[in-house]
Amino acid sequence: MAYEHRQDWNFALFSANLHQYLPDMHWGVHDLVYEVWKTVHQPKKIQPDETWDTACLSDLKQVSPRIICLYHLGMHAQLPKVLADAGISFDLLLDRRVFENQKAQLLTVQSDLQSQGSGYRFLMSDDPQVLLKARQSIRQGRHLLVFADGNSGTGESLDKKVCIKFLDGNFYARAGIAWLSSILHIPVLPISHSEMKPGYKLLLGTEIAPFLNEHRSEYAQRCLFELYDFLAEQIRKSPWQWACWGHLHQLNCYLVPPMPSKDEQPLADESLIDISLLGKKGVFSRKYFYCVFG
User: d(Cα 275, Cα 256) in Å, to the nearest integer?
Assistant: First the structure.
């Protein structure tokens, strides 16, 4: 089957990212995953039209605030409204660059949510007072809502991140969620969703909280591993669900394997793909992230 995306730079990067974490997937399958992925992640209205089963949130309305972690799994733009409609009060913690890139959309969501009362503020992760504002949210009875897989901040060196096992590779994750949990003494709760006909059903993961006398760095390692392990369960069998394959290379979250010497490179390497970039034709290695232009 011939695919229109075959020389597309976006597909090349998508495929390279996919290989980092699912290296046993045959290169030929990447094309099909990419096509399904593009369909799944077509822009959707923020106001959810679908039916949502939110029965699992009944206990969450009665407990003290948590750090609620969502993921970019196709319905992420709708989930804050779904939670609010279910009676969950929260403030949204996010990266400033994400806010600026999606400002109009996010402000529309905020206006809609605030019409229901109960806060729904934006907290910026780079705000020097973010910890004080997060503590205020908690004391006022609101959860903190954050996307666990954003990992924004490409300028952060890897030694400032926490290396965890993710799928079949390693992921360098920012530790902010774990630090907040430890400092504010509140548990972390991952939430996902599954499709059901008709509509969707929310899925709650297992709460994560520091053990007694657990060192903060050890907790950060465990917390982040469990958050991403929950994500891995959602996408291993259906990787097209995860929106981040398209820009994972921008998150500074993995090390590209060292390129073998010219003598060690196989004559026929399936990772090599023809690309067309800025009017130039070349070859791109999806395994080692290098381009050769003719």
Answer: 20
In one-letter notation, the amino acid at residue 9 is: W
pLDDT, position 266: 59
In angstroms, rounded to a whole number, what is the distance separating the alpha carbons of residues 96 and 6? 34
In this structure, how many other beta carbons lie within 10 angstroms of the beta carbon of residue 25?
15
Half-sphere exposure of 51 (CA within 13 A, CB side): 5
Q: Which residues pair with 191 in a beta bridge?
A: 204
C-alpha span between 221 and 165 (Å, rounded): 10
Q: Look over the chain and give the mean of its residue pLDDT values, rounded to a whole number.
A: 88
**Residue 243 contacts by C-beta under 8 Å, 6 or more apart in sequence?**
41, 72, 73, 74, 76
pTM attached to this predicted model: 0.91
With CA atoms as reference, report the closest residue to 270 among 31, 3, 10.
31
Q: What is the mean pLDDT of residues 196-202?
A: 89
**Contact status, residue 11 vs residue 34, Cβ threshold 8 Å:** yes
What is each CA distance from 64 to 14, 68, 116, 134, 180, in whole angstroms? 40, 12, 20, 14, 15
Distances (CA, A) of 189 to 143, 230, 267: 10, 11, 48
Exposure of 7 by Cβ count < 10 A (0-12 exposed, 13-18 middle, 19+ buried)? Answer: middle
Could you read off the pLDDT of 105-139 as tens digits, one per residue?
777 777 777 766 666 888 988 889 999 999 999 99
7: nearest Cα among 286, 242, 277? 277
